[in-house]
Amino acid sequence: MAKVKTGIDAPAVPISYELVGLVFLVNAAFTKPDQGRMGIILVGLLCIIAGLVFLRTSLIGKQRIWQKLLDDVGVAPDSQALDLGCGHGAVLNQVAQRLTLPGTVTGVDLWRSRDQSKNSLAVTRANLKVWGVSDRTSLVTADMTDLPLTAEKYDLVTTSFALHNIKPAAQRKQALREATRVLKSQGALLIVDTGHHRHEYQQVLEKLDCHIVRVRRLGINGWWTGPWMASYELWAVKN
Description:
The chain has 239 residues and is of the alpha/beta class.
């Protein structure tokens, strides 16, 4: 039986935390108690725990975040939806499960493994087939800052932990302009992200004549190593 292949976000990060933690623990084994052994053990354990928290958010927390957000927003079965930076298709699938034809959802990505491990068009297409949503999904290779898509086409646009990867700020703003360009009037834009760009997104969207419905932090399901690296959601509606 075919299996869904899910990637790990920024895979180098949790691997680095785990390796550093192991190095500290090994070092502690050769350190005398009066030379700070307990402190070294504590740092090692904190690094390992941080890496595990990162993995939990990547593999479990994101799914819970999107399930709650999509339930709150409500997705009409005949919606035309778009998922920007779709990766392996986790959010794409959650949206598709709420649709019935003629409702469809399109996933857009550049398929870069540095952002998500083993990220590829072929893997995502295979996942959609396993999930049983191929009939109402499609995939497009494109840059979020220059979408080859018709204006005012979509009732719903989603993006999950993708915007912060776009640099510099001018390009992130361009991606938001593109997201709102393809969104219908009264359509919803749902952003889940991490980093320090929340107010930037909000200001740009308000200038683009969008109404901000809700902005909030997401708690432990969105922690990338810990509360110091938290996540947030932004729900906006185009006027």
